[in-house]
Amino acid sequence: MIKKGILLLGLVSTCVPVQAFQLSIIDKQPTLTSQNWTLEDGLPVNTVGNITQDSLGYLWISTYDGLVRFDGLEFNIYNYSNTPEMPHNRTTLLYLQDKDRMWVSLEYGGILLKENGEFSHFEEQTNFTDSGITQIFESSDGKMFFITHAGLYVFNGEKFAKFYDSDKPAQNQIHDIFEDNDKSI
Predict the structure, then answer these.
(1) What is the torsional sign of CA 113, 115, 119, 121?
(2) Strands, E assignment, 83-124
(3) For residues 145 and 109, is the Cβ–Cβ distance under 8 A?
(4) Which has more pLDDT, 109 or 107?
(5) Taking the CB of residue 42, how many other CB atoms lie within 10 A of it?
(6) Which of 61, 84, 142, 149 could in theory staple to 68 by disulfide, Cβ–Cβ 3.0 to 4.6 A?
(7) Strand pairing of 160-164 and 51-53?
(8) Torsion of Cα atoms, 83 then 87 then 91 then 95, to 10°
(9) d(CA 127, CA 9)
(10) Residue 150: strand, helix, or coil
């Protein structure tokens, strides 16, 4: 009976300092705040796909009603009515490359590249695809890879090429991409 009491006392005394340590860490964390923005604040829709921040501090937001730039006070909306390079409003993925170039995936209709304040649109006429993009990946040498429903594409800085192509459409369905230690994709 005495041994059980000592064991219980030992367990309690080792648990108390751990809990006290955890509380002291939590107490030292800064207070988190949150802010919600809606249609009334200037968003084109209340649903957001992706968010990224550029080197100037702007937040870029993908929505189904355009690409949005937010400076902390105002929303600037880029869509097919004010950006001729956009064939429609439905943006899905965002990828910031080197803090100066931003890739904007379109739900259908290719991809946009925003560089030096200008947009360029890539689609089937530029050796890309109109198929949906599921992932954007940048290799260590700066090449951009795009996993789509139609296969894997690579952008070498000037043009697109299909990186992997099979005669069997089911084999073109790629789910992930990575670069190993010897820089192989």
Answers:
(1) negative
(2) 91-97, 101-106, 111-115, 118-122
(3) no
(4) 107
(5) 14
(6) 61
(7) unpaired
(8) -70
(9) 72
(10) coil
Range 40-46 average pLDDT: 86
| Best CA proximity match to 136, nearest among 50, 47, 69, 53 | 50
Six-digit token pair at 101? 């170039």
Task: State the DSSP string of 16-66.
Answer: HHHHHHHHHHHHHSPPP------GGGT-SSS----EEE-TTS-EEEEETTE
| Cross-strand bridge partners of residue 59 | 53, 70
Lowest-confidence region among 20-29, 139-148, 149-158: 20-29
Order of strands across the sheet with 75-78? 51-53, 59-63, 66-70, 75-78
Residue ranges in the chain assigned as alpha helix (H): 2-28
Name which residue leads in pLDDT, 119 or 18.
Answer: 119
Q: Which residue type, as a one-letter code, is found at position 82?
A: N
- CA count, 13 A, side-chain hemisphere, 35: 4
- Reference 91, options 38, 158, 58, 44; nearest CA is 44
pTM: 0.77
